[in-house]
Design brief:
The chain contains 14 helices and seven strands. It is an alpha+beta fold. The protein folds into two domains: 21-70, no CATH class; 89-363, Vanadium-containing Chloroperoxidase, domain 1, CATH 1.20.144. Helix 8 crosses helix 14.
Length: 368
């Protein structure tokens, strides 16, 4: 099931009504589009529609429609502008497929993985992640343990940030389910692609969670049943923070900085909750930088990708990402991270579909 942003069926308050055939009122009633599309069971509507057609439709078939901009009597195949004709779920699948096609995951050596992009004549590294050694994780168990006292103060944030943090981003970037629907879709697609890459890296790098090192951590939430590094919350929240300024444009000064501060807080809350080590957040940040540049380069002509590296063996166990408000500052500070120089930046080439999504999203933030 695809979970789209701002969908009331995904909220904690409407969980029961979303699963019940008796929730006709919440879906505009059985005699509405929800019933017609089959989302609400309505045998009466089915019978009524069939009876109405029989009573009102002429018995002879009238001339068929043929007023499309035709290619052999059919609509022109495949223009990106048709993206707006498809439903939201279909667009999600189309765009996700477009962005993951060409991605490859290569184990350079045990504990090190490189994400490559291959398309046409282009074959370049997007991001390389090398996991830390056991000594670093052992040292950071104590750092997680010392943050336990902050849980009571942060509990509301920690719990409400378990799913995607659209409400938090909306509060900063003035997002709205109707007014900025295309922006919301772009963010959702970009974050889903980032999540897919992050999950593959988690699997290949195989790093235990804090509670697996010490039962005294006792996480505030159920520990997810997959690896720790890179942190998915760090990757996704920083991806949103890096992507949205490209959509909003220069007229929305300050939004990017505030989103990055918010992303730091979201990532740090996962450490306080006992679910992540600080180093997981640093790796997640690096993945976010690389993958967001990749998504932007597929949607904006002239945008480029800087190959990026995280070397966990070079990370300082006493440092973390807290207090570093920009990803650029993280690279400048070292911490086992590196980024290719501007002269070495490359482009994967734009995608007409992704460009169309960017165009529609950017248009939502410009007054006539």
């Amino acid at each position: 099931m695809v979970l789209m942003p701002f969908n009331s069926a995904n909220s904690a308050n409407s969980a029961n009504s979303a699963n019940s055939a008796n929730s006709a009122n919440s879906a505009n009633s059985a005699n509405g589009l929800a019933g017609y599309s089959g989302w609400v069971t309505s045998p009466g509507l089915l019978a009524g529609l069939n009876l109405s057609r029989t009573a009102t439709t002429p018995s002879a078939l009238r001339p068929l429609r043929n007023d499309w901009p035709t290619v052999d009597g059919l609509p022109a195949p495949g223009p990106a502008a048709n993206l707006g004709r498809w439903d939201q779920i279909t667009r999600f699948h189309l765009l996700t497929t477009e962005l993951v096609t060409g991605l490859q995951f290569v184990e350079d050596m045990p504990g090190q993985v490189t994400v490559w992009y291959t398309g046409g004549s282009v074959q370049r590294e997007i991001v390389t992640v090398r996991r830390p050694d056991a000594a670093l994780f052992r040292a950071q168990v104590d750092r997680v343990f010392t943050r336990v006292g902050e849980r009571a103060d942060r509990a509301a944030e920690i719990l409400s940030q378990v799913p995607m943090q659209y409400a938090y981003w909306a509060a900063v970037a003035n997002l709205h389910p109707e007014r900025t629907a295309w922006t919301n879709e772009l963010v959702h697609v970009a974050l889903h692609v980032t999540m897919l890459v992050t999950q593959r890296l988690k699997h290949m790098l195989t790093t235990p969670r804090p509670v697996e090192w010490s039962p005294q951590i006792q996480p505030l939430l159920l520990t997810p049943a997959y690896g720790a590094l890179p942190s998915g919350h760090a990757a996704e929240s920083h991806a949103a923070a890096l992507l949205l300024p490209e959509v909003l444009g220069p007229a929305h000064a300050g939004v990017g900085d505030q989103l990055l501060r918010l992303a730091e807080r979201i990532a740090d809350n996962r450490v306080v909750a006992g679910l992540h080590f600080p180093v997981d957040s640093i790796a997640g940040k690096v993945v976010a930088q690389a993958m967001t540049e990749y998504v932007i380069a597929r949607g904006i002509a002239g945008a480029r990708v800087h190959s990026t590296w995280f070397d966990g063996l070079g990370a300082n166990p006493q440092e973390d990402a807290q207090g570093v408000d920009t990803v650029a500052a993280l690279f400048a500070a070292g911490r086992g991270t590196a980024r290719a120089a501007a002269a070495q930046a490359w482009t994967p080439g734009t995608s007409p579909l992704v460009m169309e999504l960017f165009r529609r999203a950017q248009a939502e933030h410009i007054y006539a």
